[in-house]
Amino acid sequence: MNEQTRRVSPLSFLEAVGLIILFLTVGVWCAAVITMAIMALARYMGGTIGTYLMAAGADRVMRRCLMGWAALFIVVLLKRAGWQGWKDCGFSADTREASGRPWWANVLLGISLGLIILGSLSVLTLWLDFRIVTPVTGGREAFRRAISFIGSGIIVALIEETVCRGMLFRVLARVWSAWPAALLISMLFALAHFISPDPQAFYGSSGLQTSINILISTYTATNRTPAVLLTFINLTLLGIVFCGFVVRTRTVWLGIGAHAALVWGVKFFHLWTAVAPEGRPTLWMGQRSDFMDSFTVTVLLVGLSAWAFSRLPRMDSMLCRQGICWHVANEAYPQVTAWLARYFETGVLKTGVLLKDDDGCRVMAEAGLVLKSYWPKKGWAGIRFAVRPSRVRRAFRLGRELAAGGMATPMPLAWTVRRQCGFRRAEYLLTTEVIGAEPLTNWLERRVSNPAVRVSVMTAYGRLMALFHRNGYSNRDFKHENVMCSVRDPGMLSVIDLDGVRCLGRITRRRAGRDLMRVGKSLALLGGDGEDDVRAFFDAYNAGVPPCLHRHAFPV
Length: 556
What we know:
Blueprint: H1 3-8, H2 13-45, H3 47-56, H4 58-81, H5 103-127, E1 131-133, H6 139-175, H7 178-192, H8 207-220, H9 226-249, H10 253-272, E2 273-275, H11 295-308, E3 316-321, E4 324-329, H12 333-343, E5 344-345, E6 348-349, E7 353-358, E8 361-366, E9 369-374, H13 380-387, H14 391-404, E10 412-420, E11 423-432, E12 437-439, H15 440-445, H16 451-470, E13 473-475, E14 483-486, E15 493-495, E16 501-503, H17 509-525, H18 531-544
Antiparallel strand pairs: 1-2, 3-4, 4-10, 5-6, 7-8, 8-9, 9-11, 10-11, 12-14, 13-16, 14-15
């Protein structure tokens, strides 16, 4: 979420919670009053409509009134949060399709995922004799009902995923962040499955007393048992999983497919099976046909949530060229396309300036961009290279996060990995080039004697280290070789190698000491550890970090 989006939207987390509480109290009470008026009018008018409403029951009518009030509150909340209209419903990504799959492929993938999970649980339940298969009379009727389940699954999935994940979650995630939005929306999603008034509460001595009884019964009609609490937790986790699907694909289609498959599968399983007469309810499997009272499902949903949120929304698009699929930053797509077509061919940069050439790594610059190439070394290092997570993918995301936070670092534009039989054989990272700069190593080797220049460089060095620690990043390799300084203004520094950077959220004094010890050793090698240099470094560093991290010398 960028800071501009945060400033534009007037909605705060507390305001959203306030609107929700207002709906759950005043909104439900108003729905009760309207329902009482509708039922009184139905008794008075009679006729076809009146008879239909009386047969449906007041509790069912109130549920429809609650849906109407919910729609009104959702519109108010979305408008306050900066909803951009019907195009902002999650049917298409706000950038090129992040996963490289069309919408129907995501739907099919979601259906497959839902059926595999539900099918596995169903088979396990039948195998353990917790449920038994029951014959259904009337084959044609059973077939008709199975087909109708498909229709209801599609409708339910479209409505709930569009409203809950496509509109509410995506909009609120832009305002706050993914996890608070997912937790709030998922808890509401779970609560909606329990909000239902008691039909007996609609009979009272006075209208006011009856409406209050209806309001209370809406939240107390459900039996308060451990199984109900576990069901609420599982429904919340299921909502978080669907939010995670949006995080991974930036659309609602994967969630729609999985949701539709779950609805159809649960109804079909309920139609053809029943609880075994001798079966006893257990915490691990439960008794419900949707398995929401099962602790096994709790463990499964926790794992799916971790997988779904294992990466942030993609910041890149796919570009396939010469059999290599590049992940390209959306705003740099035309630039990278033209650069690759002109300078890059079959894994080799045709021309360019060689900046670094080590065993397993080569860095070359051409036309304002820098290409970093990695390949396996010999021995154990080569095996680790083939199977470990991609370093260029991590550097791409980390570099863009740091650059967005104001860190002076080259902007990553694209990355790719070449594999053979599933093993990594080479990987490439394309970044912008730092123009008019030289490694800090070169500047230190010249041993500049001008005190003002040395103070400006060491001040910038300390300020850059403080920026890492203040934002929760540890840089274990912040040596002078990985820092560039401007030729015209040596006090302008930038970081060019992020292999040693880790996002820890909070930097402890011990962790900061290890980072600073590495800096101190690197400066000492080239005579940059003079008293004035160290003082300038730590004056700038201490000004940018909390008091608990303050130091006046490099740890040894």
